[in-house]
Amino acid sequence: MRWIILMAATGMLTACGESGSSETVGEPVTPAPASNTAPDTPIPAPAPVAPPVAVETVDLSYLPMPYSEADYDAGRRLFRRCSSCHTVAEGGGNRVGPNLYGVFGREAGSVGNFNYSSALETAGFVWTAEQLDGWLANPREFLPGNRMSFVGLREETDRRNVIAYVLHESGYSPGN
Ligand code: HEC
After folding, report:
1. What's the pLDDT tens digit per position in 26-60?
2. By the 8 A CB rule, do 172 and 104 touch?
3. Ligand 1 probe mutation, 84, 94, 148, 154, most atoms within 8 A of CB
C-alpha cells in the first residue's frame, strides 16, 4: 500500500517537473506524502519487489533427442522425489537406493556396495535413457520383483525432464 502511494507521488513529481508550470496553475497542489524525502535528495530507485532469482541455464544440447530439449529445471525439481532414496553426484553414496552416478552404460544392479534385489541383480541389461524411461513409467511392471517402492511417473514429459537431469548430473557423455 505504501508503495502505491509513493509511486503515485513519484509520478506526480515527474509530471510537475515536466510541465514546469505547477506554480502558475491555480489548482491546489496536494503535498506529496513522500515529503520525508529531502528536496534535493534524488528519488530512490524502486526497491526490487522480489529478490532476483538466479536463473540457472544448463545446456542440454549435447544430450540425445528428446533429452536435448528437456527442461532441466523441471527435472531438478522432479528429482526431489528420487532424492529421498538416491544421490546422483559422484561419490554421493547409497541411500535406500543406489548412487546413480555413472548409471548410463552400466549394467543394471551393479553398484558394488549396494544390496540389490535378485530381480535387479540378475536383470542382465545395461541402463540407457530408454530403459530408464520404462523403469520410471512403472517400476513394478518393468521389472517384477524389484525393490524400488516408487509409484512411477505417468507423464512422459516428467520422465523426459527427470531423465535429462539424471543424464546431466550422472556424468553421461555421448558415446558412452
Ligand atoms: C522409496 C525409495 C526410492 C525412490 C523414491 C526412488 N528409488 Fe530408484 N531405487 C530404489 C531402490 C531400493 C532401488 C534398487 C531396487 C532393487 O534392488 O530392486 C532403486 C533402483 C533404481 C535404479 C537402478 C540402479 C542400478 O544400479 O541398477 C535407477 C536407475 C533408479 N532407481 C532411478 C530412480 C529415479 C530416477 C527415481 C525418481 C524418479 C527413483 N529411482 C526413485 C529406491 C527408490
Report:
1. 555 555 555 555 567 677 777 777 766 666 689 99
2. yes
3. 148
